[in-house]
């Protein structure tokens, strides 16, 4: 069973930066579509960024130009570099993997809290 573990969350002031990591188990990481989602307080989980097996990326409009998703296949890790952060970026950030060995909806990590203060 594929397992994902997020790390790097914390408290940051508006305008600051933070880097999240998601380390993935299994033997097919390079074939996975990797995504970051977030759940703001009292709201539902929404897609933030996606990186496919070829390195192509997609971003939600609210983070485009501020966040960068990347992957290091040798380390089986996906990153989310966040800059110019806003209070609206506050929430629990989740990593998701889809591909060989996963269901169509993918495998989820446990989440990491990100809080942006004004």
Describe the protein.
It contains no helices and 11 strands. Strands 2, 4, 5, 6, 9, 10 and 11 form a 7-stranded mixed sheet that branches. It has strands at 4-7, 10-13, 18-24, 33-39, 46-51, 57-59, 67-72, 77-82, 91-98, 107-108, 112-117. It is mainly beta and 118 residues long.
Detail the topology: elements first, then pairings:
Blueprint: E1 4-7, E2 10-13, E3 18-24, E4 33-39, E5 46-51, E6 57-59, E7 67-72, E8 77-82, E9 91-98, E10 107-108, E11 112-117
Q: Mean pLDDT, rounded to whole units?
A: 96
Structural class: mainly beta
**How is the biggest beta sheet arranged?**
7 strands, mixed
**Low-confidence runs:** none
Order of helices and strands: EEEEEEEEEEE
Count of individual beta strands: 11
Distance between the termini: 40 Å
Q: Tally the helices: what do you get?
A: 0
Radius of gyration: 13 Å
Shape: globular
Short note summarizing the structure:
With 118 residues, this protein is mostly beta strands. Helices cover 0% and strands 50% of the residues.
Task: Provide key terms for this protein.
118 residues; 4-stranded antiparallel β-sheet; 50% strand; mainly beta
